[in-house]
Amino acid sequence: MAVENDRYIGRKTTILLIMAIIAFCYMLQLLNLQIFSSNYKEVAENQGFLHKTKYPARGLIYDRNGKLLVYNKPAYDVMVVMREVEPFDSLDFCRAVNVSIEDLRKMFSDIKHSVGYSRYTPQLLISQLSIEEYAVLQEKLFKFPGFYIQDRTLREYTYPCAAHALGSVGEVSQRDIDSDAYYRRGDYAGKNGVEKFYEKELRGEKGVEILLRDVHGRLKGSYRDGELDVAPVSGKNIRISIDIDLQQYAEGLMVNKIGSIVAIEPESGEILSLVSSPSFNPSDLVGRQRGKNFHRLMADPLKPLLDRPMMARYPPGSTFKPLQALILQKEGIITPSTLYPCHNGFVFGGLRVGCHGHSSPLDMRHAIQTSCNGYFCWGYKALLDRKKYGTIQATFESWKQDVVSFGFGYKTGVDFPNENRGYIPNAGVYDKVYGVKGWKGLTIISNAIGQGEIITTPLQLANYCCAIANRGWWITPHIAKEIEGGSIDPKYHEKHITNVPFQYFESVIDGMEMSVTGGTSRVAGMDSIVVCAKTGTAQNPHGKDHSIFMCFAPRENPKIVIAVFVENGGFGATWAGPIASLMLEKYLNGKVPDRKKYLEERLYHANLIESAASAYKRSDASKQKNQKKP
């Protein structure tokens, strides 16, 4: 009997335990539903209220002189709450918003398959209606239950230029939404340029308007007379360092040419002009035509969307020679009076690096003036072969660190989201290719004249010229000059000191001035201002050489540095030099003198696109061929 009672008690205990567990699970679920989970709360709230987002006005953008560059104009999004939609005349709706039936069906399908879709909350159906389309739809909106208008703004541009510098605004991606809780599907954010880098300053803070519904879901007005509404906070206005007059002029000079221009105020590091050519009208990437125009620009073989000042990479060519002169002096290899021969180039054994005709032997200043290849090849060879730091590897690494201190090889830290880094090799690269004891100065002699493995971006070249103009220091290039109610990053005020001491710069600058007064840079000469410059011609495996030019003026207390790249332009003085010369006149004197008007006309009418386009096609074909190789 006792055994049976024990069994009964055991079963009873088990049953009670199971019931207790079930009851506990129910309690946990009720707790979750009523306290922790927001699902039912959202359903209830959305049945009684409509939370309408109030978008802030995006911050305005001005140039350095206070000229308005980017502002806002009204636009309207069509939102839909799927639960409230009733059968409607879709043809009438399509006519009102200027879309086809097929497009409308796809829009509804995209909504239903989007991440975070809810039948109870407003979903973006059509973005960026024009004022005219909005007016037509507004008159008929009562016919379409469940559809609402969301006020938005679109960017408007005062000038049809500076597209890469200013950037554009587009719909956020899922990655944007996942990485920043500020965004929801259908929101807009900066995609490049200033708009992207300073997105958080420009976007402002959203507000919300709470609207009350009746039992049938119809809107009855503000809840509590707007007592709980939150007003949006407008984005901060930004004044950038671009001089829009100089920018427009520079872009005009680069029409029908491929390349870039970077102009910087050396004392502050502020970017005065940033040209990427070919370019496009920034208004092309605004509104409902953005997608169509973006794909058109993407398909263009001349790559107008490529931000060349930040991303294009070239050998610096002979513009690298002043830096070689600085390092060779610092290392005790040469003095300004050191002579080296040049017999139409550098000749050693069976190796020859050609050069144009000039006097020989010559000293450092005249070597910069005439852009002598032989002089800098001899100096570079002597530096590496003397192995001042014990081995060629250690000596090369010392040379590399001196080069890097001028802003080469790594990103400068400019306030743009897409900067490329250029390239300066290290000794390990040559050890791997030639063996630890298999290379010497002669092996990599092309580096002496800015060829070989040396790669720069246009921004880096301009920044390096700033370091020369400042006699041994530079400030990180930047485009933001002033942020309303705030300040720019302190790093854009800090000086970077180069590895080359101050005392070695004047003789190099002498050579750059001599290049203008009687050398390869004569085209840059000005009537009453001393200009210092250097030409460059970069070898191009896909066609004609690239034309390069860098300069600064005045010599004392310089106000502007300019670096110009014209792809497939040949010698530096042929195309890049004249462009820089005219920009100097425009910025420093406010006008171009009559004696240089012929240069203006020549540049306005020059068309270098065809030869450059052919080079691009050969380059693309070569890449595709290499990709097919196993």
SSE map:
Elements: H1 2-36, H2 39-48, E1 49-54, E2 61-62, E3 68-80, H3 90-97, H4 101-112, E4 123-129, H5 131-140, E5 147-157, H6 163-166, E6 169-171, H7 174-179, E7 188-190, H8 193-197, H9 199-203, E8 207-213, E9 219-222, E10 238-240, H10 244-253, E11 259-265, E12 270-277, H11 290-299, H12 308-311, H13 321-330, E13 345-348, E14 351-354, H14 364-370, H15 373-385, H16 392-404, H17 427-434, H18 458-469, E15 473-475, E16 480-483, E17 495-497, H19 505-518, E18 532-538, E19 546-553, E20 560-566, H20 576-589, H21 597-605, H22 609-628
Parallel strand pairs: 2-10
Antiparallel strand pairs: 1-8, 2-3, 3-4, 3-5, 6-7, 8-9, 10-16, 11-12, 11-20, 13-14, 15-17, 18-19, 19-20
Helix pairs in contact: 10-20, 13-15, 14-19
Task: Please describe what this structure looks like.
This protein is α+β, with helices and mostly antiparallel strands and 630 residues long. It has two domains: 56-240, Penicillin-binding protein 2a (Domain 2); 245-480 and 492-624, Beta-lactamase. The chain is 38% helix and 18% strand. It is built from 22 helices and 20 strands. The strands form six sheets. Strands 2, 3, 4, 5, 10 and 16 form a six-stranded mixed beta sheet that branches. Strands 12-11-20-19-18 form a five-stranded antiparallel beta sheet, with helices on both faces. The chain starts with a helix and ends with a helix. The mean pLDDT is 89.
